[in-house]
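Summary for the funding panel

The consortium committed to producing paired sequence-structure records for every protein in the target list. Below we show the first two records in order, beginning with the earlier of the two.
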Amino acid sequence: MTQGRTDIVLTLVAPAALEEPLVDLLLAMPELAGGFTSSPADGHGTRVPLVGADENVRGRGKRVRIEIALASAALSTLLDAIRQAMPAAPIHFWTMPILDFGSLQ
């Protein structure tokens, strides 16, 4: 894998209340997160804190899921920038390899 090649996808999952600040942070770092996709998600399980009556009734927590395709060489820099900007934020992440990447245009 070459340094600039898009070879992994980083998935971030955070409480829905953090969507705007997290998206704003990523938009401010186009050299690390040049483009990404965000979508609503539901968190399930005993380690998912439920906030408010709505989530307690539903039994699941509202989350945002953000996926960023990037070069693995940029991963630690991006994660460090998020940690520094949002040090107490309960943001979970994982990465997966990308086998192929491109545009159909």
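The next record, for a separate protein in the list, is shown here:
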Amino acid sequence: MQSLLTSLRAGWSRASDSNAGLIAAGIAYYGFLALVPLLAAAFLTYGLAVDPQTIAAHGESLTRTLPGAAGELVAGQLDNVTEQRGGSSGLGLVVALALALVGARVAAGALITALDMAFAEQPDRGFIAGNLLALAITLGAVLALGLMAGITAMVSTIFAGSGGAFASYFLMGVAGFAGAALAYRIVPQRQAVTRAQAMRGGALFATGWIAASAGFGFYTSNFGNYDVTYGSLGAVVVFLTWIWLSAWLLLLGAHFAAASRLMSD
């Protein structure tokens, strides 16, 4: 227990010293730019098996875990993607999917750079290897989004009301834990963390992510009226803030995993 607390303090100190908040802002910017391409890639792929109406319903279930205005913004973009899916078929659908993956890959590249900095890495990946890693992360995010949409919709049908909300947050935490732990495990090139250290970092991220998402959502719904200050940009500001919080927590988990690795050496 003492070593865990020491690693937590060391991880927090590493994150503060490396300006993790500023780096997270960069990830948030690229993540926001990748929103539409990532949604398009996820739901164009998902749409190969289901109809546009089902996509819209499942997407609505998925956005319920986001802070109010952010969820509305993502839902609006998802509606646009669904409409485009309705008019695409054959080769056009393949081209649209390829372009969406390329657009979303930019955010994955920014995430890899940030994690390299968190793990104090000096990567020597070549152009091809770096792009393949970014594409692998992008494809993983696309598949995870599609899977989460289907599972969340099913859970929301089984558990009505607050039970569905709790179940959605639980699934969000499981997905966050798995994704973060996998990223911490595969991104470091020279000084890889162990599976246990990556899982500790993933657990810290998932716990903080659920708490931050729920807390920020409660705050924006009851106290923070961003529309008064920012007008029509209120939803954008809420969504950017939520992405920034998520990115900062992801980097904190990485620093915690790195600190655990150093303590074990």
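Regarding this second record: The chain is about 85% helix and 0% strand. The mean pLDDT is 82.
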